[in-house]
Design goal:
The protein is built from two helices and seven strands; from the N terminus they run E-E-H-H-E-E-E-E-E. By secondary structure, it is an alpha+beta fold. A hairpin with a 4-residue loop joins strand 6 and strand 7. The longest helix is centred in the middle third of the chain and has 14 residues.
Amino acid sequence: RALQTVRGYFLPDPDTPNRLTVWFTGGQLSPVPPPEDENGVPDASYGGLEEWIALFGAEHKKTWGETLSNLGAQLLLGAELPAGMEADGSMAYTLHRPFGGHGKGYVDVLYVDDELFITKGNSNTVHVMTTQKRPNLE
């Protein structure tokens, strides 16, 4: 089980109302800690960090296709790819030349209020986002 985080930013589309143009700037893949029961005991069937590392952390020889794909991402997108896995099992990448833009990546805003934001993307994916209460830092 994993958490995939995609980083980017939105700008209003200049030609289409209720459309936001998306630029992608990076992302991360991380293991999700197992849920705990009412006594605070982790669910043993969920898998742990050791299983994650065995699955995603093993060294493997890259194919020519993987090598060329990585090189293309580095040259065209300014991709900074992970050299390996962090101690917590996460692997992150950064795109120094964001991917997307007008006509390439967008979401149409279907609904928005103070707590809910629903969009439909250019590949027909529907995303439902809720606001998260932040702790008062003052």
